[in-house]
Amino acid sequence: MASLTPALSRREREQQPVLFGHPGQIPDGACLGGVEPQLRRMQYFPIFLSLTGRRVLVIGEGEAAERKAGALRRAGGLVATAPRFGAGDAGLLDDCALVIGADAPDDELQALSAAAQARGIPVNIVDKPSLCSYITPSVIDRAPLSIAVSSGGAAPVLARLLRARIEAMVPPAFGRLAALADRYKDEFRRRLPEVALRRRVLEQALGGRVADLMLAGDDAAADREMQRVLQGEPDRAGIVYLVGAGPGAADLLTLRAQRLMGEADVIVHDRLVTQDVLDMARRDADRISVGKSKSNHSLPQDEINALLVRLGQEGRKVVRLKGGDPFVFGRGGEEAAALAAAGVAFEVVPGVTAALACAAGAGIPLTHRGDGAAGDGAVRTLTLATGHLVDGALDLDFGILARGGTLAVYMGLDSLPALRDGLLAAGLDPGTPAALVERGGRADQRELMGTLDELVAGGRAWSTGGPTLALVGAAVGRQVRRHLPQPGQDLSGPV
Fold it and tell me: Which residues are 267's β-sheet partners?
């Protein structure tokens, strides 16, 4: 028999350095890319400061000082400049709203920083973070729309690269579109006092034909379309999106899921939806946890159905977030049926289901074409099954499952003895490879490899309590460890 092999987590088994880090290379107590945990916190509070008609001071002479002074003037500041800051120059700070120092001797810049901070005046000393009470980000200017990008001084080159990407994604027409929205802002507030409804109408306008006309350069037609939207009768109907949140990693969300989370009025989510995923939602959206774990439902399913129906009937835009895919053991079908019966509009947005995420993270192919012309060892079927026990038994057709293919059993740890007994009794080879995968698709994914007998013997002690999927079949034995290139490694191969 094969020996029980506790497969290391991705964190444990991939300790080679990789540029920018990778979720699989996070040692215990550290964060993405080896960054210390405290660096994950936002070190600077982002804020836009009005300087119109206010005195601002720039100390120094040279290109950097001139560039800063020019930016302050464009923001409406009354810019005062001086080449130096000496012991008798404290009066330069009188009535200042902001101070910047550049291209001056270090001792004078230190004195400027100390004097400004003593008066409570925000001060920035160019390229000297230790002397700054604030920092200036890279800015994408599409006035009146402004987008700021900052790394908090940790990686300014990276911030500039991101700025360049955003510059390419946000053409200048977006500034004119923002100005158009500003012109009609008061009229929209008067006609549509309900905030959620007004937001929805504006999202449809600014993300639809109004934006298309503006981006096409037809500003007059965009203005006429905005007037038509304003005078039309708004659609007050609600809609519920049944959205798959995937295995828990935020970057495994679909683009549609991410977009809808940014537009929703309400987020209704399960326990398995991670905080990283929830952080992708609009900040002011209402969040309702209906957290469900095995045999512990904080809200019964019929009450969840009723909640979704009520929110939809209230005209809300609802995202119902479910771990994995809503139609794969997610009871999404029950929720869809309840919404349809109540006449509430809904849409299903698929997500990465656990079987796919677990297999990918573990390097286990779920199917295999076979070896040689005859296709020996081919695995051509994949079966998804639930490990939910009914009166202590698994309601599965073990005769069919034992014939071959790959079997993925969701919530597979507690039912593992029953799964083992049923498959072996139906004729499955006792040496068939199997695996338990805990927290699949996340940085802390773990695998335990072995046969069913071995997993039953050691699985409970190995588990740390996370959601676990069981995989059984010949393809499990074809696990391939991920190989990541090392810095400087030649990957070109023969020419």
Answer: 287, 319
The whole-number pLDDT of residue 490 equals 55
Residues of the chain with pLDDT under 50: 1-3, 5, 7-39, 491-495
pLDDT at 373: 55
Helices (H), 185-279: 185-191, 195-206, 209-215, 219-231, 255-263, 275-278
Give the amino acid at 185.
K
Would you name the residues annotated as active-site residues?
A: 270, 292
Q: Tally DSSP H helices, then E strands, for the chain.
A: 17, 19
CA 358 centroid distance within chain: 19
Q: What is the 3-state secondary structure (H, E, C) of 308-339?
A: HHHHHHCCCEEEEEECECCCCCCCHHHHHHHH
239-352 topology per CATH:
Cobalt-precorrin-4 Transmethylase; domain 1 (3.40.1010)
Q: What size, in residues, is the chain?
A: 495
Which numeric CATH code is attached to 356-478?
3.30.950.10
What is the pLDDT, as a whole number, of residue 168? Answer: 85
Fold of 55-166: Rossmann fold (3.40.50)
